[in-house]
From TrEMBL:
<feature type="domain" description="GGDEF">
    <location>
        <begin position="329"/>
        <end position="465"/>
    </location>
</feature>
<feature type="transmembrane region" description="Helical">
    <location>
        <begin position="147"/>
        <end position="167"/>
    </location>
</feature>
<dbReference type="InterPro" id="IPR029787">
    <property type="entry name" value="Nucleotide_cyclase"/>
</dbReference>
<keyword id="KW-0472">Membrane</keyword>
<dbReference type="Pfam" id="PF00990">
    <property type="entry name" value="GGDEF"/>
</dbReference>
<feature type="domain" description="PAS">
    <location>
        <begin position="171"/>
        <end position="212"/>
    </location>
</feature>
<dbReference type="InterPro" id="IPR052155">
    <property type="entry name" value="Biofilm_reg_signaling"/>
</dbReference>
<feature type="transmembrane region" description="Helical">
    <location>
        <begin position="36"/>
        <end position="55"/>
    </location>
</feature>
<feature type="domain" description="EAL">
    <location>
        <begin position="474"/>
        <end position="728"/>
    </location>
</feature>
<dbReference type="GO" id="GO:0006355">
    <property type="term" value="P:regulation of DNA-templated transcription"/>
</dbReference>
<dbReference type="InterPro" id="IPR035919">
    <property type="entry name" value="EAL_sf"/>
</dbReference>
<dbReference type="InterPro" id="IPR000014">
    <property type="entry name" value="PAS"/>
</dbReference>
<dbReference type="InterPro" id="IPR001633">
    <property type="entry name" value="EAL_dom"/>
</dbReference>
<feature type="transmembrane region" description="Helical">
    <location>
        <begin position="67"/>
        <end position="86"/>
    </location>
</feature>
<dbReference type="InterPro" id="IPR035965">
    <property type="entry name" value="PAS-like_dom_sf"/>
</dbReference>
<feature type="transmembrane region" description="Helical">
    <location>
        <begin position="92"/>
        <end position="109"/>
    </location>
</feature>
<dbReference type="InterPro" id="IPR000160">
    <property type="entry name" value="GGDEF_dom"/>
</dbReference>
Amino acid sequence: MQRKEKHALFWGAGQLAIMAGGIIWFGGAGLIPLELQLYLCALCLTVGMAGYWSGTQFFIGKLRAYHVRWMLPVILTLSGFFYYLWHLNNAWLPPGSAAALGLVMLWGGSRLVSVNNRYRWLGLTLMLRGGFNLFSAASLSPDLYKVWFVGTSILKVLTMLGLIYAVQDEIQQRYARTIDSLSHGFLIRDRRGYIHVANERCAKLLGFNSAQELIGLHVCDLLPGLTREMADHYFFRFEADGAEYPIADTAIFKLRNGNHLPVELLGSPYVERGRLYCLVQLLDISERKKKDDLLYQAARVDPVTGYCNRHALSVRLTEEVKKAAAVGRECAVLFIDLDKFKRVNDSFGHAAGDELLRNAADSLHHLLRPTDVLARFGGDEFIIVIADLAPNSAEQMAIDCADAVIAAMAKGFELSYHAISVTASVGIACYPHHGADSDTLIRNADIAMYAAKKAGRGERRVFNDAMNAVAKNALAIDGALRDAIEANEFYLVYQAITNAHTGKLTKVEALLRWNSPLLGPMPPDRFIPVAEDSGMIIALGTWVLEQACRQVGLWKHSVLDDVTISINVSAWQLADPGFVTLVSQALIRNGLSPHQLELELTERVLIEDAANVQTVLAQLRALGVGISLDDFGTGYSSLSYLTQFHLNTLKIDRAFVMDIEHSERSNSLVHAIIAMGHSLGLQLVAEGVETAGQAAILEKMGCHYLQGYHISRPILADDLLHFAGDRAAPQAQPDFVI
Ligand SMILES: Nc1nc2c(ncn2[C@@H]2O[C@@H]3COP(=O)(O)O[C@H]4[C@@H](O)[C@H](n5cnc6c(=O)[nH]c(N)nc65)O[C@@H]4COP(=O)(O)O[C@H]3[C@H]2O)c(=O)[nH]1
């Protein structure tokens, strides 16, 4: 029961006590001994007065705990006094009671009238009753009892109405205040789509002057493009069996000033008097959307040249291949590598390197039609997609374009402080002859580019089957991988991750190395995709997990006692139903506490089977294992992953860190990622830190951890132990706490 309802209860109790007194006096004559009758009447009158007094105090919020403590002794004393009076002359009982009550009512009524608007009506009726009681007391004779009874009953009804109005108004005001104080917009719609309740925040969000203006509108009046059928369909979702709440949607609201507002809607069912309504919370997500758009752009636009990046290219090429397949056309992919770029970078610095890339990209872009695509694929690699070509013309068109590219590059570039000429090697692959999908076309164009490079600088080559040796190389890798675990050909190296603030070595990333007797040392970038294609990655990942945990177990009681080990996990491993058990067993077997293990995932992993991944990650988090998102910013970067998957660490990709000193764009992007990570309570690790300048900038930006050649290259376990020992000695500052 609410506070104000309790107040009414006090009054009700007072009213009942007075009625009981009346019954005892007028109906009890002859049935109860007179002495007892007198005392009970005195007691009822006092309880009645106390009820009215305390109810009034309560209404205006002035009833204190000590009032209640004194109530009983006061009632007993006062009732004794009244009993004494009635005892002297029991004819005083009706007029005396009416007078005493009248006084209390006049007092209570005047308090209510003067204190609060809501109770004015109640106070007036109470004063009226008080006056009537005093008048009756003065004139009461047994002949007028009936008149008194009718008069007082009418007034009582008026008081009750006043009371109901006051309490209802109080409850409604409280309800309105509560929903108005919500920081989110809030509305309740009925089955037909009409709005019944809305708060001020909702009105403000949607550009209305007050919540009142929204009441009675149809939801279709708020959302452009929303039809009545769609609004009905939305409601049906709340009636569906097994639906989980809140139901989350996003929508763009059209405001009255013509602007559009992106909003997240959280809908829940709400039943009132047996009727189902839909309660919708509206969250303004324009800021979030802006950041998402920024990340979206960052994930698709190359920060140095401003043209497409690798991811955007893959999307566009897939589209072009699909279009070409649908209408029997062709398209061509040109893989371009600038031959002397590294030397430019090393000799003249990153700024000159970036300027060269920008100039080269611009002159490539001049050669293209609006429908073609230009992308920076990697450091000094560009890809051109020539789209929508007539059947059997792609190869010739691509050759002409490659010649134009080589000529354009050979002309040289006037940079700010240097004149530089570069040569380009170009590989060509055409759809449908050299591949039927984007990955194959890029891979084959890449193979052709290597062939061009081998043939000398400034060459072009069209892909052919003979070049497939490289692809066959993948087959060779696949074959050699099969027995490599048993043959002990793998080992792990460890790369230090240090606290950006204190320099303390806090985490270590385990990286896989393969020294194949058949193929020689093989970088993970080459054999991991092959292991993923063949499914062998599961066995390999299990080996890495066990080895890494075993190594951390061996580091116990050393300077690396409480280090956290970070290992890369592929999508295949997460999809394996036994993965969580595998992790928990590896922890137990090697005596590691779960916080010492962090699993690194890429955004691709998160997207591929989002529902399953979410479940597995929830289980791993429940276990206490950390989850970190690798290469953030290069893929499909979306804020929703960060909140949806309960990650605890974000690794900022090397591509951004690399340019942080020279590119304003990379700098502000890293800044934005760090700020966003902070606001989501995530730990941030910057990858690929190669210079002290980068480390200093990142530390200043609030990045928590640093990893890269500037601190240490990936090294063997024993070397890392020495490295950590050397590093630990002079550190006196406490570890950074997030
Ligand atoms: N230029 C430059 N590079 C730096 C710097 N600091 C670290 N690196 C390199 O960046 C890579 C970081 O690992 P990653 O992003 O997880 O990327 C890893 C990871 O995706 C994958 N990988 C490595 N080990 C495993 C493994 O055990 N399992 C799985 N599934 N993937 C692995 O192979 C990728 C490449 O690994 P690595 O060749 O060892 O290359 C490592 C590391 O040697 C720096 O300052 N400058």
